[in-house]
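Please predict the structure of the following assembly.
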Amino acid sequence: MNNKDIILKEKFINHFSKVFEEKLIQEIIKVGHFNTMKSGQLLIDIGDDLTHIPLIFEGTAKVIRHIKIDGELVLYYLKPGDTCAVSFINCIESKKSVFEVIIETDMSAVFIPVDIIDEWLVTYKSWRRYIIDSYHFRLMEMLESIDGLAFTNLHERLFKYLTDKVKRNNKKILQVTHQELANDMNTSRVVISRIIKQLQDEGKIISTRNKIKVLDINT
DNA sequence: ACATTAAGTGATT
DNA sequence: AATCACTTAATGT
């Protein structure tokens, strides 16, 4: 194991030592491979065969649903401590991915080979808990997204999107273009620009080229 | 200085 | 709220 791996291993232990029992931690270190990915990189594409499951301990990734050729929508985000829960079924059934996953902020994760994750479900209680909780959590996030789509107007949805992003990254200044927001929310850039202007007039944000500063985090 | 890319705007559906 | 057809502003080379 080289230097980089040792640092990653430490970070992994920091994040997961309270989640998994010691024996499992050791096993993960033994069979998983540690890796880092840069912001903007494609982690999983639609149609990919999933051979490994990532356990994220640094950075964030967004899970995107594609509809038709240029329709796309961000479903939810993965944070440290998360895994790509939907891919478990994919792995066990050896199906192809129906989502795209893109790194939002530089990410570190340990990738577990598929054949082992199934075994662990029966051998490790903490693993089973983690997977079940993970599924539950994803389902809740998905519900939140659906609620947003069905019962909230774009104005509020966009503001929520921005504040969520701030919370995830712990940075009040976001590096995004109106076009990127439009893509994530499956709308047009012009519409985003107009809402951004409204939000700015309301004093909730300050927007400049490529940057949006979120001023009031509450509400 | 020039080209490229991001953002603003009015009109139309 | 989407699309078009611009204009204006910011940035890279």
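The longest strand of chain A covers residues 52-67. The beta strands of chain A are 33-37, 42-44, 52-67, 71-78, 100-113, 173-174, 205-208, 211-214.
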